[in-house]
Amino acid sequence: MKARAGLELMGGDLAIASEGSFGPHPAMPYLPCGRELVLLLDRYDGQEFVVVGEDLTVETNFRREALRSLDEVESFLQQVGYPSHAVVVETPGGEVFKGITRCKELRSAVDRALQQDGIVMLETDMRAMYNPTRMLAIARATQDLVSKLQQICPQCNAPGFVTIDRLPGLPCGWCGQPTSLTRSIRTRCQCCEFSQDALFPDGLQTADPMHCAFCNP
Ligand SMILES: [Zn+2]
Ligand SMILES: [Zn+2]
């Protein structure tokens, strides 16, 4: 939607857009994680082609906590990389101070909230210009986009010949039954729809029996 809105505003047929989100890790909910997308939209001949670079990482300072003392505030700030990373201070009355990197500003907002209500809400400022850790994640997502664009379709030479599916069934090293590990990957071209399966993308032809439902139930 961002990429399309950019094209509507500026004209042209090629747009890049990025978007980040933060929350619990999909597989390990007790860990905070960040997900960055950097997308290239190409409008060609009335059709849209999209290639998406992605970065999913637990290298994030994403955090939001209710704090009750200056000591708690101090330890929060150390953990989130303040002041190279900005924070957001929120008072129980609903006042919000964003992009705080100066101790004077921080102190006055925190003191006021603690004195009035005995509690203050601190949150990391996740806007990219205030968050160098996030800048690195966006750079990795961009690298991912570049390497996907460098994968060329063997049929029509279009860029973005990328994996669309990982197919399970890698055979167990003991009994030969299929496991849930990846046996092959499917790559497909958006332009000519040519697709190709490649066996053993992880370099393994058999699975460790610990992944076998039969040998290691
Ligand atoms: Zn193609
Ligand atoms: Zn087995």
Give the percentage of residues in beta strands. Answer: 25-35%
- The structural domain count equals 3
What is Rg?
Answer: 24 Å
| SSE sequence, one letter per element | HEEEEHEEHEHEEE
Main sheet makeup: 4 strands, antiparallel
Distance between the ends: 46 Å
Oligomer status: single chain
* pLDDT averaged residue by residue: 94
Parts with pLDDT < 50 across at least 5 consecutive residues: none
Strand order of the largest sheet: 4-7-5-6
> Structural class of the helices, strands and pairings?
alpha+beta
Q: Bound compounds, please? A: zinc ion
Helix content: 10-25%
Question: What is the tally of beta strands?
Answer: 10
Number of H- or I-type helical stretches: 4
C-alpha geometry: flat
Outline the structure in words.
This protein has helices at 2-10, 70-79, 103-117, 132-149, and strands at residues 14-24, 32-44, 47-57, 64-67, 87-90, 96-100, 120-124, 162-168, 182-188, 195-199. With 217 residues, it is an alpha+beta fold. The chain has three domains: 1-61 and 128-150, no CATH class; 64-125; 160-217, no CATH class. Strands 4-7-5-6 form a four-stranded antiparallel β-sheet, covered by helices on one side. A three-stranded antiparallel β-sheet has the order 1-2-3. It has a three-stranded antiparallel β-sheet with strand order 8-9-10, with no helix packed on it. Bound molecules: zinc ion (2 copies).
Compact overview of the structure:
With 217 residues, this protein is α+β, with helices and mostly antiparallel strands. It contains four helices and ten strands. It starts with a helix and ends in an 18-residue tail after the last strand.
